[in-house]
């Protein structure tokens, strides 16, 4: 195995160990200050690994990594809205939410590997798939732009119905356990259901984010590592941003633009290759403008009241 993959694996394992057994050894409600500090830690880890990619693989791969990292960070903001709905519906106590997200992210690491390497193989053997991926992103952009927010009803989903049929449930949380034993029988708690929906939501979001990052780079190492380091910081980002993200009313316009732009980039890739520096600039600008517009409009509405 290439040394870079071994270093990546070691960094991820050490970071996950610190997160579970040092930072969150005891379940507790995560304060805004702690969440911001953890977010800064994960961002520093992701950017530092980007510097390693730049140093070992050169300028182009380094820029591709940072573009993929920023792209996944931006798209993962949409995940946070879904996490808010999941935790609210299942009434997951705040001190146990990190545990659900930790194992959710652990599963995401495995599923993203499957999606990314399957996507790379498809593009390798069937080049025309790049047009399919591009159309998927454009359709997702339009859907994000036009779909109104809907209420969250997990009881109507296939995941919920199958889980309820296969696994007997208990309505209490049992000190943050996913399963408990009663009378020699194993029962699932609402924590397990919340975890199932976190995992299933990540799989759904991967349908957008994986084709998007494949438009940035075809290097398996760059694609996978930038994706995973962005995901690793998703938990702390949730606790830092859960309270303020709903205030960013124009954020979905920025995310829609990003998906649409990457989709068009894939469709044009055989005729004109948009420089990766341009992609990095446009993705960063879309996030900044949509967030700034949300804050400016909110400030103006408050001053007019």
Provide structural commentary.
By secondary structure, the protein is mostly helical. The protein has one domain. Helices cover 74% and strands 3% of the residues. It contains 11 helices and 2 strands, in the order ααααααββααααα. Strands 1-2 form a two-stranded antiparallel ribbon. α5 packs across α7. The radius of gyration is 20 Å and the shape is globular. The mean pLDDT is 82.
Question: Topology of this protein?
Answer:
Blueprint: H1 3-23, H2 32-57, H3 59-90, H4 97-125, H5 129-146, H6 158-166, E1 179-182, E2 185-188, H7 190-214, H8 220-232, H9 234-241, H10 251-268, H11 276-303
Helix pairs in contact: 1-8, 2-3, 2-8, 2-9, 3-7, 3-8, 3-9, 3-11, 4-7, 4-8, 5-7, 5-10, 10-11
How many β-strand runs?
2
The global form is globular
For the termini, the CA-CA separation is 62 Å
Note poorly predicted spans: none
What percentage of amino acids are in beta strands? under 5%
Main pleated sheet: 2 strands, antiparallel
Order of helices and strands: HHHHHHEEHHHHH
Structural class: mainly alpha
Give, in spatial order, the strands making up the sheet with the most strands: 1-2
Number of domains: 1
As a percent range, the share of helical residues equals over 70%
The average pLDDT score comes to 82
